[in-house]
Amino acid sequence: MDPVTLLSFTFIASLLVMSPGPNGVLIAKTVPTSGKAAGFANVAGFVAAFYVHGALSILGISLILVQSAQAFFIVKMLGATYLGWIGIKALLEAWKGISNARDIAPSRKQRTLIKAFIEGFLTNALNPKVSMFYLAAFPQFISQTQGALGASFALVFIHSMINLIWFSLMVVLFAKLARAAQNSTFQRCLKGVTGVVFIGFGAKLATLKP
What we know:
Layout: H1 3-18, H2 22-34, H3 36-59, H4 61-67, H5 69-96, H6 110-125, H7 128-141, H8 148-176, H9 178-181, H10 184-206
Helix pairs in contact: 1-8, 2-3, 2-6, 2-8, 2-10, 3-6, 3-7, 3-8, 4-5, 4-7, 5-10
């Protein structure tokens, strides 16, 4: 794959990763309440989901989601339901408030890290828009004369590394602001905003057409 093609794909993938979306909102929700390690666990989940989407696209399964209205609808509604559930949960937490400072202290429990990883993974894995990105991008950046398999995974790797770098920087930024962010009033506002945004993303995904 020539350097111009790689740079073009990297530029487009960077714009898509940096655009506002559920990933950034999840990081903003996780780091102030569960700590930097949980934020990086979110990012690890994002990256893992990219490889799942990439593998499915290369195997042609994602093509079914685009060509089959029923399959696309099922995956779309699963993703919308998950995002909506996160949003409702955050709104309930904002309504109840935080009873004491211990509840907002960074958690070091392994269970919390696993949960954060799963949240990050599901946020990406249940989003058919990611599959659609791969289906739209691969034909434009991979020549049929090249090794399609190697080139496809190379693009998945580039996309995942951009995602890793960008959201790792976000984790570090929110960790720097953690002391101010651990104020209970700020926490309730953050959870309220997070809830509204996630419900909005879920509604947008539910109305997405193939």
